[in-house]
Design a protein that fits this description.
heterodimer, A: alpha/beta, Arc Repressor Mutant, subunit A, five-stranded mixed β-sheet, elongated, B: about 375 residues, D-Maltodextrin-Binding Protein, domain 2, 2 domains
Chain lengths: ~210, ~375
Amino acid sequence: MTHRPLKILIIDENAVRAAILEEGLREAGGGEQADDAVVIHHIRDTVKLLPRIASIDPDVILIDLENPSRDTLEQMFQVSRLARRPIAMFVDKSDSATVQAAVDAGVSAYIVDGLRKERVKPILDVTISRFHAFDRLQTELHQAKSALEERKVIDQAKGILMKQRSLSEDDAYVLLRRTAMNQNRKIADLARSLVAAAALLNPGDAND
Amino acid sequence: MTDRIAAAFVPLVDCAVLVAAREQGFAAAEGIDLELVKEPSWASLRDHLNLGYVDCAHALAPLPIASTLGVGHVQVDCIVPFVLGRGGNAITVSTQLFSEMQDAAHGAALDSPIAAGKALASAVAKRAAPPTLGMVFPFSSHNFDLRYWLAAFGVHPDRDVRLVAIPPPLMVESLRAGHVDGFCVGEPWNSLAVAEGLGRIVATKSQLMPHGVEKVLAVRAPVERDGERLGKLLRALAAAAEWADDAANHTELARVLASPGYLDAPADLLEAVLRGRLALGGGRVADDPSFIYFHKHAANVPRAEDALWIYAQMLRWGHLQPSAAAQLAAANVFRADLLRRYVGVHAAAPAPSMPFDGIAFDPRDIKGYLERFDVYTRFVETPAAEL
């Protein structure tokens, strides 16, 4: 039995996450002729949502669970005379593991009534795994940023020690590291306090 | 031993009882560690409650009824053992729409919901395009109050205006951006719109539906097995509600609610709301001690009559088809018996409630009551697609 491709609408203000999800869904959809072929649309901002959704006429809508536009969406589905009214995925209580996994990942989905479960499940699985992948990416990005910030504050602290105690750069770092170890603190934390204290005592130094 | 209870809330003045229970020590006194989880939307709050991510929620009164009836979403049995607040909503229109209403009224003062409603009806008739009005959720008293008010003046809420649901914290921004021409929302979002010169308050819930139920504590059913834990929570909430209603505590309550973790709004504005002295715009100030309240007039008792009023509104606007089973199920969501069992009998009689149009609600004859309105929307079944 052949199907027409499923139309999937992603509503996400975050273009990076939407792109990651779109890529995943395309990979999963094996081409125009395949049973699981998909056509993907992405709406970024939520102005004039209803006419845009009506013109796309999606089978599945994927949206971040915490997106405030969900209230707007649900009300539209409640009152609109759209020919095909999507309903929340949670309506299908038979697959509670998927629902649980979706909520944990922060995914919510609206699916037109009558769409078979075998066609929805792979889409949800991809969405859940791509949301997790995006979260990991965010975490890594955040870690890279804070590593950069730590290096900068340690450099500043070294500069202060070099100037005030006439130390070489290496000796300044050794002093920082030893003090941090003795106080059972992270070097970056110690460096931050040192820079802050220097800014109080000698407003010129910390800005070097 | 301390019991952890997680409650979801949306930032609104009427989450005050939950906040006071936590911050003023009423929960701790009952041995409860009350964790409050802020939600970005009502859909998110409902999902977290229905799937068990929180134990209970600060909910729009119609929400647990819609959940129990399986309207608009998955069917989940919920109960309401406690009313968290009555009143507290208002209808605000943009300064532009307000001036259209003034023109339509030929200079008559728009100082009552009736004068404002008539003016709005003539302004809507003169407009090239219907105005867009915001409310917070399909299953909210805001939706029902706004519809009731519009319909009373012949404005059909599904034809003559566009209604759109927007979470409360985004309401003021939507008015500023011109996405909506007005809205019905809980405080402080009306007062904030007025304070920023974006709109005028033209009616309050306390004028439209005096003493009307607003936010409730929603809990997934059944609760009997976990009764003692619920009992502790209800006693903490009753004590917190009494404290929150006392005018002597309004300054402190406003200060706590103002913090970024809760409402993130100016404390003086919140205090004015709690005292019922909110600025309406154009120099007018309300003076209504029952604008919002949490305890007096037996406010906390979830009366079956309150639930049936909501059920009747759902019928009026085509959310579902009438049936004896649905009516009974709706009435049984509101469980005054639990409050009686765990907190004790409330001696105070409820305040008599008469809507602004003088059409009294009759819970014993809902069909007859609904026949008194000629503006309504029929229930339409959506056929399922075959895919």
